[in-house]
Amino acid sequence: MRHAIDQWLDQNKPGRTYRSSFHTTSETSLRAVKWNGGKGTSTESSSAIQTATQPKQTADANRQDFAIENRFACKDAATPPKRETPRSRLSGLLQRVRFFSGNDIEFTSIADSMDTCEPGQLLVYRLGEDCPVELISKALARGAAGILTEQVLPAPIPQAIVGDTTKALTEIRSKQTDRPDQKLITIGIVGSAGKTITSFLTASVLRDIPCRVAYQTGLGSSDSVLTEAGSSLANHGHALIDALSDAVDAGAAVSITELDSARLRSGSYDQIQFDIVLVTGRDAKNNDFGPSAVECAFELAAENGVLIVPAADSRLMRAANAVTETQPVELLTYGTDTNADVSIRTVSREDGVLTAMLRHESRAAVMESHLGNGHFAECLAAAAAVGVVTENSLPQIAESLSKLRELPGRFQSITTGDWETDQTNPTARLDVGGSAERVQFALEAARNDLNQTQAVSVPMTPSPHATTSSRSRRPQLWCVLAVSSADDEETLMQYGRLLETLPDHCVLTCAPADKADFLAISHKVLDGVQNVAAMRLVADPQRAIQWAHGEAGNQDLVLVVGGMDRSNPDRERHSIDEFSQTLIRCAENRHQAAAPASETPTLKVVGFPEGLPAEKNNAESDSCISDTPEDNDPPNLKLFDGT
């Protein structure tokens, strides 16, 4: 792997050759030359420009002579013909295809939709999504070259019949762009938890080689030059092929991709070979007899590739060893506080900082990490294993891993930025969740944080409204879990078991788009709960957070899990920001309510005439005393705070 990166470094020097999915270009080596001009100013040029000056002047003179000789030529000369758009034959791009109403289809490009189809483009019929009658009529009216479909349509237009249009589009784009995955070091990250964090940690390690790194993650994407959190997630199919092609054109050496488990099993990555397959979390079990997502990812490993798996998962180890017996790939293990090829030995975890020893063979390096308050040691070890494969030194790997301090929505600490406000409020954590394993990890990490603060009985700035018993009680964990209709019944039942065993108080809510189905979803969660009355149900996630934050004590921890819109990176970041702002507003309102009044309370005697001095009021009051007891009532006293 390191040899391939070194080749990339050699290519990105003066006199280098750029590899592109469209063509190969060479750049002439330039040597800078400085001298003083006629006016004594410093002038900079290059030897290549000097050597090219005379041929350029000769060519300019020849063109000028030719223009003089032909100055009386006809002005209405024929315009040059337009450059024809190159056409592709579908039979040369697809291996398994059958044609109807023709032997082949020549097309210029693939249309995005039936409404934007142009003459000569290939139109795709997506079964179950497009109306066949409307698609046929627009294909004929707009002059489409043909239709790519999974079934024969009753239309007099060339059609290409394939088994899966999504796989066919991926194969077409892969061959049109000249297999961009073979021009990069491709890293595929698969697993049930920790893929995004491991992706960013791996990118941090590889950037310090240094080399350009492209990535496709749930939080954003990059072609090694531009980074964006767009409205589309290009992590599978032909969109991923286009992203890899853009990374090649941008000069990237490595590409990191989060692999979706469902897409892996459906074959959306079959046109890509991965040099490194990294497994995070655990191998999620399936209800059928087909291969798991991790086993499908192992089949995509390139020749002489590397499989990186956690040493603590015996099932993954058996599957990886079976692959190494049939394919020419290497196996590398990682883990925390266990025997593995690359391991992290925990020294301490205090005040949100993880201090650990990074080990590989007989070498070791000390490192610190603030990521996730020091709870992502497993992801750190996985990214360090990639650094070992690329032959980086352990001190350099440790330094690179320490640079990443926080990721949005990954056990993120939510603070107001004001020390006094944070001291009078419970600790807040935010996690995107998404699976039972991730929810369990977040709950266990929050419980570990509470155990570290259990010896503290009274906060530095206790609330004036807190009683003696509330100040000395044990810190408690409050969990606000937002479920979704996308969760299956088994996952929802596992949520119920986790909420009943790990937190002290739990509030069940749902994503904003699933309020109509909240009652049905909550019943599936309660199937895994014995004490049903111990769980509070609140359909609105914002109100659920406000209630839990208001009921929690100053020493407690409020953990908010799930409820974010993760359809694309842009919506996910906006959802995380909304939940973060809700927690911040709750903390600020609570601090303002607990703050003492600005003015000290005063005592005012009510009942005397206004506008008179105090001495006069006292004299008049003495003279007005009656002999009858009922007329000598004591004055009314009112305590007010000056408002």
3D architecture notes:
The protein has an 11-stranded mixed sheet with strand order 14-13-12-15-11-16-17-18-19-20-21, sandwiched between helices. A 6-stranded mixed sheet has the order 22-23-27-24-25-26, sandwiched between helices. A 4-stranded mixed sheet has the order 6-10-9-8, with no helix packed on it. It is 35% helix and 22% strand. The N and C termini lie far apart (73 Å). A hairpin with a 5-residue loop joins strand 3 (32-36) and strand 4. It is an alpha/beta fold and 643 residues long. Helix 5 (165-176) packs parallel to helix 7 (237-249), helix 6 (195-207) packs across helix 12 and helix 16 (489-501) packs across helix 17 (518-526). It contains 20 helices and 29 strands. The protein is globular and about 80 Å long. The model is unreliable at 13-59, 66-79, 465-471, 614-627 and 637-643 (pLDDT under 50).
Describe the protein's topology:
Elements: H1 2-11, E1 17-19, E2 24-26, E3 32-36, E4 42-46, H2 47-51, H3 53-69, E5 88-89, E6 98-100, E7 106-107, E8 122-124, H4 132-142, E9 146-149, E10 159-161, H5 165-176, E11 185-191, H6 195-207, E12 213-217, E13 220-222, E14 227-228, H7 237-249, E15 254-258, H8 261-266, E16 274-280, H9 293-299, E17 301-310, H10 314-326, E18 330-336, E19 342-350, E20 353-360, E21 363-369, H11 377-389, H12 394-403, E22 412-414, H13 419-423, E23 427-431, H14 436-452, H15 468-471, E24 477-483, H16 489-501, E25 505-510, H17 518-526, E26 535-537, H18 541-551, E27 557-562, H19 569-594, E28 602-606, H20 614-623, E29 636-640
Parallel strand pairs: 8-9, 9-10, 11-15, 11-16, 12-15, 16-17, 17-18, 18-19, 23-27, 24-25, 24-27, 25-26
Antiparallel strand pairs: 1-2, 3-4, 5-7, 6-10, 12-13, 13-14, 19-20, 20-21, 22-23, 28-29
Helix pairs in contact: 5-7, 6-11, 6-12, 9-10, 11-12, 14-16, 16-17, 18-19
